[in-house]
Amino acid sequence: MSNPTPVRVAVIGAGLMGREVASAFGRWFALLDCPVRPELVGVCDVNSAALDWFRQVPTVRHFETDHRALLAHTDIDVVYVAVPHHLHESLYLDVLRAGKDLLAEKPFGIDLAAARRVRDAGVKLGRFVRVSSEFPFLPGVQRALAAFNTGGFGKLLSIRNSFLHSSDLDPTKPINWKRQTKFCGDAGVMNDLGLHVAHVPLRMGWKPKRLHAQLQKIYTERPDGKGGMAACDTWDNATLHCTVDLPAQSDVPLTLEMKRMSPTDTNSWEIEILGTDGGVRYSTKLPKTLFTYTRGKEQAWCATDLGFGTPFKTITGGIFEPGFPDILMQMWAAYLAERGGLLDNRFGCATPDEAVAHHELWTAALRSHAEHSVVSL
Ligand SMILES: NC(=O)c1ccc[n+]([C@@H]2O[C@H](COP(=O)([O-])OP(=O)(O)OC[C@H]3O[C@@H](n4cnc5c(N)ncnc54)[C@H](O)[C@@H]3O)[C@@H](O)[C@H]2O)c1
Asked: Which DSSP state fits 171?
């Protein structure tokens, strides 16, 4: 079995996602013959208590509370940054200027202008930059896209991609940075959940030419955690009704849904492509099941149990079902493989151009909502 030289990775932001990444690296041996291998060597968080969890990771040797101190270490090749959105641009630029490669978190800057500046800096400085978006690495998503690419769907009727939560339905849930525009950004839920629904359409070439957006703010204040109330001013739910031209067909409807208030949903990611002759649907609600149909006198969804057919092969039983930690590891394998020129024909992480394009959609959506108009892109 190959044992490639490790790529030395550091994490800035030791919160939810920083820990998930450490955990993905910790079971890297689950990957079979992966041509790349990360080693977590450093962590940085302004909250020193957040660093303590990482002390159980044997390979971590740098513990810093100032990201500049972390970036000064010469034994770091790649930096993963998972901090609130208003800090993305300055920290991403510092990573690139320090001569490190970057796996950025979405939304890749708080707005379109920030995303363009980071993308351009990465190009100018010659760094390898990608953006975190793990759902395409699910076997069900790969199979859905392969089914579409094989053809036979006939005339396309609609494409829909959604990412839905329900945790914000509880009005007593205390405020946090993701619910405040100054930290999350004007695009609100689109900044938070949007790359998850834009990555696949943009990669497939389904780039909207115009859109109409419906945005909702449901609860305008939340408990501040100190006995009072705080303004909750981000968009909670967003539905974008888009029009797409495909090579063989123009004016195809594409719907992108991002919701923090979607009753019954917890991290529910779904794609559905419907044509006159065939269709496909995949949802994380049923993580091992691919739904397909072909036209007949009557139509019915055919449910196929997929098992564990991930892009990078693993020791996991072929009939087992995949989950979030698995696809995060697959995404990192794709990032490191592409960085090393070893991705082959596998699906790659979201590119800076795709991240800029997704911000173009949210900018258009904000305008559409404000003007009650259809916006051309
Ligand atoms: N890919 C995904 O599925 C996914 C899921 C959740 C969040 N995210 C993204 O990850 C990023 C972080 O989200 P999270 O949920 O991990 O947030 P979090 O609030 O759990 O953690 C953020 C951490 O950043 C630290 N921090 C703040 N300022 C810092 C600074 N200047 N230097 C170093 N550390 C600093 C905070 O102390 C905190 O520990 C966001 O961009 C978010 O959109 C991605």
From this structure: T
